[in-house]
Design brief:
The chain is built from no helices and 23 strands. It is mainly beta.
């Protein structure tokens, strides 16, 4: 089956946090367009068998991220900027991930090929999941480790844990 494109070329695309965009078709859907970086998704779901290819831009998520399929992050950034949010990446990587304000709780393993930024006013709950970081851990907020394991799997890394403690760390 040929791929599909979700393009935003002017203005912005906004779905509020109470609503869900579900990618369910088999094959790859590419997010693109000259202003895709202005887009905000409420709840974003990637179903099994579906693949979403992200732009080299920022995508905002104000609701829940649930991935049972595949996510190709390219060199893009996903910003979680809602209040209380669950993140289930199903082990699929993000390139850069930013958390802004509110509490973000992991409900699956997290893999970040670039930088994790926990901004001031944001709390990330590691729960019991693995968090792989290939580049930078930049914590200006709060990280509640729970029983999680943070694995620094890059070659040259920067770690700014602020005052938050890790439970288990692998370097």
């Amino acid at each position: 089956m040929a791929g599909a494109t979700f393009a935003v070329n002017g203005g912005s695309f906004t779905i509020n946090a109470a609503n869900t965009v579900t990618f369910s078709r088999a094959g790859t859907t590419t997010l693109s367009g000259s202003t895709i970086g202005n887009s905000t998704f409420g709840n974003l779901t990637i179903n099994s068998g579906a693949t979403v290819s992200a732009p080299n831009a920022n995508i905002n998520i104000t609701g829940v991220w649930s991935n049972s399929g595949s996510f190709n992050p390219n060199n893009g950034t996903v910003t979680f900027n809602g209040g209380t949010q669950n993140i289930n990446a199903n082990g699929q990587p993000f390139w850069n991930l930013i958390t802004d304000a509110g509490t973000k709780t992991l409900t699956g393993n997290l893999d970040i090929n670039g930088t994790l930024t926990i901004n001031t006013g944001s709390t990330v709950n590691g729960s019991s999941f693995n968090i792989n970081i290939a580049d930078t851990w930049d914590n200006n907020g709060t990280f509640n480790a729970g029983t999680s394991t943070v694995i620094f799997d890059g070659t040259t890394q920067t770690i700014d844990a602020n005052t938050s403690a890790f439970n288990n760390v692998t370097l």
